Amino acid sequence: MDHGEAIIPNPWMMLPFGLLLAMIALGPLFFLHWWEKHYPKVACVLGAITLGYYFFGLHAYHTITHTAIEYVSFIALVGSLYVVSGGIHITVKGEATPFNNVVFLLVGAILANVLGTTGASMLMIRPWIRMNKYRITAHHIVFFIFIVSNVGGCLTPIGDPPLFLGFLKGIPFWWVLEKCWPMWLAGIGILLTMFYVVDKINYRKAPKEVREEIAEPPDEWQFNGLINLVFLGVILVAVFISTPLFLREALMVAAAVASYKITKEQIHRANQFNFHPIQEVAILFIGIFCTMMPALDWLKSNASAMQQTSPSIFYWGTGLLSGVLDNAPTYLSFLSAIMGKFANPEVVAGALNVDAAGMTEAQQIKFLLQDPSLAQYIVAISVAAVFFGANTYIGNGPNFMVKSIADQQKVNAPSFLGYVFKFTIPYMIPMVLIIWFLFFR
Description:
Blueprint: H1 15-30, H2 32-57, H3 61-85, E1 89-91, H4 98-131, H5 138-147, H6 161-169, H7 175-205, H8 208-214, E2 222-224, H9 228-238, H10 247-262, H11 265-270, H12 276-291, H13 293-303, H14 311-322, H15 327-342, H16 345-352, H17 361-370, H18 372-388, H19 397-408, H20 416-440
Antiparallel strand pairs: 1-2
């Protein structure tokens, strides 16, 4: 099949993706030991079924190649940030009061725009756990994922993968900050307020001796392994390299290898660093990337044909799917739908005085951004992809890694369904409803 043709898969081929999501949700809940042993086989077998259908049934070689490149880019970025951040040890002050926790999460939300949600999460999750060690519980982990691993990274293309993909397509670097800061401020403000209330209740319930131990004179802040900031810088610079193919990923991997070799063993030991969290993410997401191809292709072939459109519809469509699909390809699918719906090459050519035959995506996006009413569609999918990526463990890469580190350190992180029912529905859904009401209604 020529890569210019639309791919319309059999809807039944979305079944492997549904099965994988169901296994990720239910496996740890009902047959934990079996799942821990066999999840690589489940992910690879279901991925192979979809891959075989695309290769032998649809002959969609371009889609397979494109998905493989996206996966390599994803795991190179996430993996390198995991390794390099694991070489930095932060000794925190021992004051885990609700107010200090709020300040810590706010700093993490800001850092997410500089280091990316993955880098900020991997740098700060271990100090966060140590800081709250006397009363650490599920809400500490989940609100960290909400704020640092997702919503915080809404201000720059570095912050979250969907925004970076938009930057590569032609959206100016500072456009996101200019248009999305009110939503970021409202979203972070709502979540921090919710967290403060929940954490205050938890703090008051703590035994008197625990509260006294928390309130003891704190240790001084200490930072070890700061040489790894150089390697973090290499990774962030590599993000902006697009050619030749895989040079960006090679630089990231090289930075991770150098970091691992140079970092002193006692720092890794203090961080309880090992490769299990990134191994789990790599295996599960290779299954997710393969099995979600039919779902994304079906979305592309149907989204642009929608009769009723508004920023509100795109906000909810992108958001709801970002929670169960990886948020980056979901964002791209809806961006393609916006361009197909509103940036007809003939119209764009007339408006920009360019050749319609050689129309580029960057020119289509430029046309969209010039009209505030059309630009609002891109604002809607940008905010939705980032915010709703927090709604499940698989909505964004760092989510699973934070859970894996929490599990490794014996912290009570909720199950897949526990996460959704105990935290997403009562906290995230009201927040995204308020954002919709204020900005996209």
